[in-house]
Specification:
The complex is a heterodimer of chains A (193) and B (450). With 193 residues, chain A is mainly alpha-helical. Chain A has eight helices and two strands. Chain B has 450 residues and is an alpha/beta fold. Mean pLDDT of chain B is 89; it is low at 1-8. The chains are: A mainly alpha (193), B alpha/beta (450).
């Protein structure tokens, strides 16, 4: 199992969520630009290829005049707000993990629109975000962080996260293997195609 | 003298047991003879079969299995796709095979890792790169054993022409010929074919001690089979040599009738048009009966679909769509190839592709002469374009349309350098969303006469 990096203190992240602004959230291309900025801040080496799937998210394809589905922010928007906190500029993070986290944001929690006044829901969202970026709250051991994530999440949701990460890790291993092999010659074939 | 340009720290090719495990003395001697011959070309690279003794054993049993195909292969194949392939796992399987989504080259190109089954160890993978007609560059995951399996299908195809590959005597099994500005070339051996030598060569005179060495080398090595794309085979006709191979395999592009006749007249051997692609291997080949290109793989289902993904009526033209295959690293499920054909079945149950709309060869006029479309591929490869289309107009002007992050000004400069300062070049980002993008097109006189 991968070691977790030390992240921000959890109380700071609760405060951050409670300070979610009331102004209308960006959408469509504005939202996409915001997410790209976030990814660049978190991982300056991020490539366009890594970011490309984000453009296909429904939230990033909305027209400005389309009506809001809900008056409350969804998990996706809350994650972006949370991760835009300056505390996330300290650890070395991977944009691949960020993209993977944001792509799965809609399915991570039982509710799509968490109640920010509910401490348990905030805690779940924070721990899911940290775990997705391979972080743990400051002053917690890896073991504690994982245990507490399991406690706040249903076991099914934790399974989804683990499976999705395992799938992404395997896909990355395959991509790397192919990239290394591309740099070398393959095996003999006696016709060209 | 070793002509190979490889690093002097690499072992000589005829002692290279990493690429050629189990290299026998006989194979090493043959290989050395071909590499050290005074007329040998400059080999630019190294390659090898990379097969373990177990792989070779498996290959022999594969050969037997391919002769006695399992007619019920599709059901277990679909079950493996459903359970073990990430991309297919969430398909609406309950709808039945005909209603499952189709995939295209672009799907593979964007997310190839999701098509590799869970059971495949990434550490074992090898990769074949391909640019293809559709302009979506693709890396095909494969295994050394899969590359060697091509031999089984070539053996079957040649058998249709009365040629028993295993009984043929000679030291050099195959010579691949290319005709490009630059080309990855090498000499290797085939342990599953009597240790015969395989030579991959480039007929460009720059690769040879002198232009006449090309013909002398062919006469010296006497390759049993010669393979190449139609343009390279056309160059072969211009060389002076006596040797006649037992068969010629034409791949990669459409083999036009006139060239085939000239090859048959000169070499008096079967000239076999082969429809093959990196994603699926050999799909169909001329069997000499004049019925079209006969399907060669028994565990590759070929469907012809209309634009909506429905099978076309019997005898109608449709898009060649593949399911199955012999590469366990890339199980194809309703894979739309972008090529169109009709299917025909004779009274003996042999199935043929007819009116295959394949890949017409194109050459481009520069101020110094002609450039092969494969050379264009090399020219643009470093830019990593997602997709592109190059068209040359009647007046020689070029239009490059592309998708990707490249700087249009740099692309323009590279094309202007290759084609000469007087050639108008226009660059457009965005290829459009056509059903099938033909990567290389030209209205320039003579572009299709090479």
């Amino acid at each position: 199992m991968v070691d977790l990096q030390m992240g921000p203190p959890i109380h700071r992240l609760h405060e951050r969520l409670l300070a979610y602004p009331e102004s209308p959230a960006p959408r469509g291309q504005d939202l996409l630009a915001l997410v790209y900025d976030l990814a660049h801040r978190i991982d300056p080496g991020v490539t366009a290829e890594v970011l490309e799937p984000l453009a296909r998210l429904p939230q990033c394809q909305l027209e400005p005049d389309e009506p809001e589905i809900s008056a409350h922010p969804d998990v996706f928007m809350l994650m972006i707000w949370l991760l835009a906190d300056e505390a996330f500029s300290e650890p070395t993070l991977s944009a691949i993990d960020l993209v993977s986290l944001l792509l799965s944001a809609d399915n991570l929690m039982a509710t799509g629109y968490p109640n920010l006044q509910d401490e348990d829901q905030r805690e779940e969202l924070i721990r899911l975000a940290l775990n997705g970026l391979r972080l743990k709250p400051r002053d917690e051991t890896d073991h504690q962080a994982r245990d507490r994530l399991l406690m706040v999440s249903s076991s099914e949701r934790a399974r989804v996260v683990t499976a999705s990460r395992a799938a992404e890790e395997r896909a990355e291993a395959i991509r790397q293997a192919l990239a290394e092999q591309r740099a070398r010659e393959a095996a003999d074939k006696y016709t060209r195609e | 003298m070793n002509r190979s340009t490889h690093s002097t720290t690499s072992p000589a090719a005829w002692t290279d047991t990493e690429r050629l495990p189990g290299l026998s003395d006989r194979a090493a001697t043959r290989l050395r003879h071909c590499i050290e011959h005074r007329d040998a070309p400059r080999f630019t690279g190294r390659s090898g079969h990379r097969l373990t003794p177990l792989d070779i054993q498996t290959l022999l049993s594969d050969k037997v299995a391919y002769q006695r195909p399992d007619l019920n292969w599709l059901t277990p194949f679909l079950a493996r796709c459903r359970q073990g392939v990430p991309y297919y796992r969430d398909y609406p399987w309950h709808l039945g095979f005909d209603r499952l989504p189709c995939t295209r080259r672009n799907d593979l190109s964007q997310n190839i890792a999701a098509f590799v089954p869970d059971e495949i160890d990434p550490g074992q993978l090898i990769a074949f790169e391909t640019s293809g007609t559709t302009g979506h560059p693709l890396t095909v995951p494969s295994l050394p054993l899969v590359a060697a399996r091509y031999h089984c299908f070539h053996e079957r195809i040649l058998g249709w022409h009365g040629i028993e590959l295993q009984s043929l005597e000679g030291d050099t099994g195959v010579m691949l010929v290319g005709d490009q500005q630059r080309c990855f070339t090498y000499a290797s051996v085939l342990p599953y074919w009597d240790d015969k030598v395989l030579l991959k060569t480039n007929l460009n005179p720059d690769d040879w001690p002198e232009p006449e060495a090309r013909g002398r080398y062919i006469d010296a090595c006497k390759p049993l089979l010669m393979t190449g794309d139609p343009r390279s085979l056309s160059t072969l006709l211009s060389l002076d040599f006596e040797h006649r191979p037992v068969a010629i395999l034409s791949t990669s592009m459409t083999l036009l009738g006139g060239l085939k006749e000239r090859l048959v007249r000169r070499f008096r051997c079967p000239v076999i048009n082969l429809y093959s692609m990196n994603e699926a291997g050999p799909i169909a080949a001329d069997d000499g009966r004049g019925q079209g290109l006969r399907l060669v793989q028994s565990t590759l289902q070929v469907d012809l679909l209309d634009r909506q993904g429905q099978p076309v009526d019997d005898g109608d033209r449709g898009e060649i769509t593949l399911t199955g295959g012999f590469n366990p690293c890339l199980p194809l499920l309703r894979y739309r190839t972008g090529d169109y054909a009709c299917l025909f079945e004779d009274t003996h149950g042999r199935r043929y592709l007819r009116q295959l709309d394949g890949r017409p060869p194109v050459r481009y006029r520069t101020d110094k002469g002609w450039l092969n479309n494969v050379d264009i591929t090399h020219l643009l490869q470093p830019f990593g374009l997602a997709q592109y289309q190059l068209h040359q107009a009647k007046n020689g002007g070029l239009r490059l349309r592309f998708e990707g992050e490249a700087d249009p000004a740099v692309l323009q400069r590279v094309l202007a350098q290759a084609f000469g300062p007087g050639c108008p070049v226009s660059i457009e980002r965005n290829c459009g969303k056509g059903d099938k993008l033909i990567q290389y097109t030209s209205d320039y006189p003579g572009a299709h006469d090479g």
